[in-house]
Input
Amino acid sequence: MTIRKLEPTDDREAFFSGSEELDEFLKTRALAHQRSGSSVTYIVAEGTQILGYATISTTTLSRDLLARREQRNRPADVPALLLGRLASSMSHQGIGVASRLLRFAMELTLDQEDRVGCVGLVVDAKDDVTDFYKKFGFTPFPTGTLNQKMLLPCSTIRSAL
Ligand SMILES: CC(C)(COP(=O)(O)OP(=O)(O)OC[C@H]1O[C@@H](n2cnc3c(N)ncnc32)[C@H](O)[C@@H]1OP(=O)(O)O)[C@@H](O)C(=O)NCCC(=O)NCCS
Output
């Protein structure tokens, strides 16, 4: 499965994941956000057919949200990558599309750490998919801080890849 950046000629209209919000984002906002430098959307594609997508941007976290052992030698605000959206096409779910995109995001996170500094990968996880992210080692932030957000620290990514 190859991954590349979303292009204007890709068939966004045909994408159906089962989540109206995620389908709508791909159809109406993903390219505009990419053009404005707000995020980049990566897709698993077969020709112009989109099998899945992941939208990635940079973000900042308060050091206090990290596990104690991760707080040492870090400033008050630390950089991270944000996996803002992840979805696979209903007709291609269960064959590893999202896992492939997630692995790509994990590799990008380590690359970012090496080049400009990054503490890990943050996701905005909807309730029914937190178990999906837990499988990869993501852990929730302390209750009441960043609702629904979960973090995969670079140290965990390094052991997983
Ligand atoms: C959740 C979603 C991204 C998973 O995509 P996918 O391409 O089917 O995932 P994969 O085929 O890579 O599955 C990887 C593993 O996660 C498991 N999994 C898939 N969906 C899961 C869920 N909702 N909860 C727990 N585990 C899940 C799979 O069973 C598989 O397990 P295995 O490796 O033991 O066989 C996809 O179902 C989807 O797009 N759903 C609608 C949109 C959505 O909810 N996106 C998440 C927004 S935060």
